[in-house]
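ARCHIVE RECORD
Type: protein–small molecule complex
Small molecule: 2-oxoglutaric acid
Source of inputs: curated submission
Record status: active
Notes field left blank by submitter.
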Amino acid sequence: MQSTSSFNANTIDWQKPGISIDTSQLPDIATDANDIEVFRRDGVVLLRGLFADWVDTLRAGLQRNLENPCQFAFPCESNPTGEPGRFFDSYCNWQLIPEYLDFVAHSAAASLAGQFMGSDQAQFFHEHAFLKAPGTQRATPWHQDLPYYCVDGMKTASVYVSLDQAAAEVAVQFVRGSHRWGRLFYPRVFADGSSFNDDQAASDLEPVPDIDADRQNYDIAAWALEPGDTIIFDFRTLHGTGNAMVKTLRRAFSTRWLGDDVTYCERPGETSPPYSNHRMRHGERMRKDWFPVLWQR
Ligand SMILES: O=C(O)CCC(=O)C(=O)O
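STRUCTURE (tokenized, with ligand):
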């Protein structure tokens, strides 16, 4: 997705392309056909402890992101002033934060994403880091990531690494099978759940159903998470949280991956990230110099 309260037009010059990644350094990973089957069926799968070895590195990167938020792209605070806790996120910093780059360039995330998407390649879109501090009650509004994004396609995956213990009621939750509903919902502002774009009413998107008011009618995956637990989910899978109070620090780091059917998509209103001067037209493949292909079958 996207997150976020509103895009900060004054964010740093995050769009500088440039770093090239030596794909020969990227490890392949053996995947389990049953896990891939669950991902295809449910739009989400949990792989316990998969990236435990990366937790310290990613925590250090997120700490760098937090200490100087304005030096990085799209720092966003979604807790209104005066509300307890903190709900922070930031994204598009993989070229700026060495620990994030290390993960993108040296972890098995590309291989994992490519195999789960059933794609001949895994093209990297961007990363996104999240933090909720103890005391936070602000929910992550239920949303799908795809309608925020300037891409379209069926083969997509987020690789979400939990960096802390999180009880099920505060961890991100997923509506199983929602990626197959054939429905897309309005993106929402994280701070208050309102629509992300004013002109969405004119689009084909629907309002997100009130999942929390009707939980028994949805098949919700709500897992207690440990550091290193990794959730792979489709950009169309509905996810979010209720507003149970976060009792201990809860951080996560997500990478977003595009499969071989994904193309650039013009959507009404602003997309996330708000790329400019990209010179791609609707329906074209995403340019590889900005979005590197890091794994090929
Ligand atoms: O961790 C959260 O609460 C939100 C995560 C999320 O929305 C995402 O990774 O797309």
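CURATOR ANNOTATION: The first strand starts at residue 44 and ends at 47.
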